[in-house]
Amino acid sequence: MVQIAVMGYGVVGSGVVEVLTQHAESIAKRAKEEIRIKKILDLREFPESPFTAQFTKSFDEILEDPEIRVVVEAMGGLHPALEYTRQCLEAGKSVVTSNKELVAEKGAELLALAQGKNVNYLFEASVGGGIPIIRPISQCLAANEVIGIAGILNGTTNFILTKMIRDHMGFEDALALAQKLGYAERNPAADIEGEDACRKICILASLAFGKHVYPRQVHTEGITDITKEDVEYADSWGGVIKLIAEVKKLGNGQLQLLVSPMFLSRESQLATVDDVFNGILVRGDATGDVMFYGKGAGKLPTASAVVADVIDCVKHFKARKYLFWEDGSPDYVQDFLRNPASMYVRAKDESGGGLKKADALFGGVTPLARPGAEPAEFAFVTPKQEEGALQQKLETLEAQGVSVLSRVRIGDFS
Ligand code: HSE
Fold first, then answer.
1. For 127-165, what is each residue's pLDDT tens digit?
2. Fold held by 2-130+299-315
């Protein structure tokens, strides 16, 4: 029998306890050991819970208990999750987590610590919820050189954009609906500003290319400025707007990363990933494109990934699982202003000559139209050029009396 502890009894932690309890028999068969929850750490009271005997408010009770060999960290946030994880690993306990913020910021350090102590630090649930993606990249696709990864990695923003596209809702109304249905966090900033997707692409990039990518190295834009008008222009262009997180390996060894809303052609596989679903496209040199699809959030899908990691830990007490990346470096990610991009731009010019000005500046643009646009409004797609040049030209356009209302990059992954 193996004793474990669960730290944090929120959505994920309670889901882990539920799955471990309900599927105890089949899990024991797969792990070849019975798995028992000895302690649950949470500062709140749960008087109605059938697990009252296991609850504790003291982390030391877990740390100092030699019978507890695996700890599930489902607390979220950086502190005290980081300190608790470090102490558990130092004490020779394996740790399993769904905490993408912690893995994205401290993955290299915690993996090195786990390696030094010959224990496991596993985090399948940190990206894509119930979608298997960490194990496939580190094991099943291990024979490939990964060329790039592009994904819809945040369910909340995908739900909001789907409502804007299908039901013609405005951003605020779609966000309010996501909150009402319990998809968005009460403070949804990490979702709608793109930070959550950024953390997840950092984890995937670190894993696929073997060196830590930190969230601060990735240019990140959310979906708060996307309007119904932009959705209409995307439709007339032949696509939809999605929040895409992507990484590409460059010939010089650097990585190119970006988190941003993008126009995706309707033919793109990611364009059909709707509602709260996530989709992750991994491009390998041997496999070509491999697509992962499923529920990227929610209590039971996430708990399912956590429990699978617990089983893996139990099966690998003697031979540690190989999951590792080295620390990052400041020049590992290409300067964002050097990324090549083509951009949709919506603008207004009361003089009526805006499109001609844009055409001259960008060296030929493709105009777009939408029904019901005011006479002064116009929209176009630029040719591909470096982000820095695009930004400069947009500033020049504004200096020529054009108001730029919105801009969205054109996705070029597929
Ligand atoms: N807020 C996240 C999402 C939860 O909407 O995808 C899962 O990481």
1. 999 999 999 999 888 888 999 999 999 999 999 999 999
2. Rossmann fold (3.40.50)
Q: Give strand pairing partners of 278.
A: 294
154 lines ligand 1 (CB under 6 A): yes
Q: What is the pLDDT of residues 330-349, one digit of tens each?
A: 999 999 999 999 999 999 99
Residues of the chain with CATH 3.30.70.120: 339-410
Q: Is the dihedral of CA 237, 238, 244, 249 positive or negative?
A: negative
Q: Which listed CATH number (3.40.50.720, 1.10.10.10, 3.30.70.120, 3.30.1360.120) goes with 339-410?
A: 3.30.70.120
The tokens for 186 are: 């009460």
Which one is catalytic: 100, 163, 200, 242?
A: 200
Q: Ligand 1 atom closest to Cα of 156?
A: 5
Atom 7 in ligand 1: residue holding the nearest Cα: 297
Q: Tell me, what's the pLDDT at 414?
A: 65
How far does residue 206's CA lie from ligand 1's centre (Å)?
20
Architecture of the structural domain at 134-295:
2-Layer Sandwich (3.30)
Q: Which residues are 262's β-sheet partners? A: 242, 409
Q: Write the Ramachandran bin of 375: left for phi over 0, alpha for psi from -120 to 50, otherwise beta.
A: alpha
200 is catalytic: yes
pTM here is 0.97
What is the position in ligand 1's atom list of the atom closest to the CA of 188? 1
232 CB less than 6 Å from ligand 1?
A: no
